[in-house]
Write a structure and sequence with these properties.
single chain; Aspartate Aminotransferase, domain 1; Aspartate Aminotransferase, domain 2; globular; binds pyridoxal-5'-phosphate
């Protein structure tokens, strides 16, 4: 599958907006955006201006250990970013990739959980005040039996902790030892959502009941529940706000962290800055992980999950200053150019077009679904999906794959209605050709 994409090398001097130009001069409508990394399109003038600024150059060439000895511009950029934090989040922790954001959010959950457990048992909250034999057990990897609950089909990254919570494809995990942490079923909802309301409600109720059983079984060992607002790599699987509220309620009851992985769903692609804003949660999540469109990885935390003790959460660099400047400018452009409303409006138009296509080719195109610009369709088999994507690419529309048989679209937030019309025309042509 991936080999078809390795043929494409980007000429990013020529690419502009949603148009990706390859080294051979072929022009593609980019519905791929490098697995949702891209946000404002190629060569956005505001990002070019930041990249040419003295601050950016200094941030790029003068490595600084931000947690220990930060440069002045680091405070400015962190203050700026905090204005875009999800509601209730008071802390930001920056690293490089999405998977590192997950690793560190899990660490924050484990640390708070460990401190609470010790306090409840009348032991010192500070691990450095524990008896020396217990500190020795910690050094010998025998310190904690805590677990994180994740969901079937989830993807949280490829480093070891994140991979233990990833269950989307065998190839990601084969031969790599994993923590034996519990896995709850993610509801296998059907689409279009409006056609399957009762059926989906019952799938979600079953999934919540299964999660509750895990809480019964693992009880106080559970430090947190990690979940994607839309399972992206696992096949673009959506669940309702009610489901997420149910998960959060179980976390609250158990007193563990409710951790949202917004690496792929954050940064405006769903039509709100953070997808969980659409779930009407009764309170803010405890930890929200970011990545991709924010140009770096990291997480936001509420007060309860802000880790103060020196040395517990620390990386030499803790965030790339230059990337953080680009992230901040990206978020400002999203706000100033009204891109969230644009994504909601054009995304709804795109989804309606995909639903019409699925109705026209019911045996080929199925389960159209989306939130904003996170859009997907299923084909009957992996081979049919791969061949469909290749034909669309040959006609100049670059969408990508997810799960076993889904087509995933992740356009840049600037995609226009005309672009959508072009995409739908091309998908229609391919569907007509394939249906013979
Ligand atoms: C939901 C989710 N979490 C985490 C990651 C890992 O991010 P990265 O590849 O930047 O490490 C990804 C990457 O696709 C993702 O989609």
């Amino acid at each position: 599958m991936q080999s078809i994409y390795r043929l494409l090398v980007v000429d990013d001097a020529k690419s502009q907006g949603s148009s990706l130009v390859d080294v051979d001069g072929n022009v593609f409508l980019d519905l791929f955006s490098h697995f949702a990394l891209g946000c404002l399109g190629y060569n956005h003038p505001r990002l070019l201006a930041v990249a040419r600024s003295d601050d950016f150059v200094r941030g790029s060439i003068n490595p600084t250990s931000s947690p220990f000895c930060p440069a002045t511009s680091w405070f400015q950029v962190l203050d700026g970013l905090s204005a875009y934090a999800p509601k209730g989040m008071t802390r930001i922790f920056c690293v490089d990739a999405g998977t590192e954001g997950i690793e560190n959010a899990l660490k924050a959950a484990f640390i708070v959980h460990g401190e609470r457990r010790r306090t409840a048992a009348g032991l010192p909250k500070n691990p450095l005040e524990l008896p020396l034999e217990e500190q020795d057990a910690i050094l010998r990897n025998a310190g904690s039996d805590a677990v994180i609950v994740s969901f079937s089909g989830a993807f949280h990254g490829r480093t070891l902790g994140s991979l233990s919570c990833t269950h989307s494809k065998t190839i990601h995990k084969a031969d790599i030892p994993a923590f034996q942490w519990p896995i709850a079923p993610f509801p296998a909802n059907r689409f279009p959502l409006a056609h399957h309301v009762d059926e989906n409600a019952s799938r979600e109720a079953d999934a919540l009941a299964a999660l509750e059983k895990i809480f019964d079984e693992f009880g106080p060992r559970i430090a947190g529940v990690l979940i994607e607002p839309v399972q992206s790599e696992g096949g673009d699987r959506h669940a309702s706000g009610a489901f997420f509220r149910g998960v959060q309620a179980l976390c609250n009851k158990a007193g563990c962290a409710f951790i949202l992985d917004e690496v792929q769903t954050g940064g405006g692609i769903s039509g709100t800055m953070w997808t969980h804003e659409q779930f009407e949660l009764e309170q803010s999540p405890d930890l929200v992980v970011f990545g991709k469109k924010l140009q770096m990885g990291g997480f936001f935390a509420n007060d309860a999950y802000s880790i103060g003790q020196f040395g517990r959460m620390y990386q030499t660099r803790n965030g790339d200053r230059a990337r953080a400047m680009l992230a901040l400018e990206t978020l400002k452009v999203i706000e100033e150019e009204g891109l969230l409303a644009h994504v909601r409006e054009v995304g709804a138009y795109f989804l309606a077009g995909l639903e019409a296509l699925a109705a026209r080719y019911p045996s080929l195109l199925r389960e159209p679904r989306g939130r904003g610009f996170m859009l997907a369709l299923d084909l009957p088999t992996t081979a049919a999906r791969d061949s469909f994507l290749k034909k669309a690419l040959q006609r100049g529309v670059f969408a990508t794959y997810t799960g076993n048989r889904s087509i995933r679209m992740r356009p840049h937030l600037i995609l226009s209605r005309d672009d959508v019309d072009e995409a739908l025309r091309t998908l229609d042509e391919v569907a007509r050709e394939v249906s013979g």
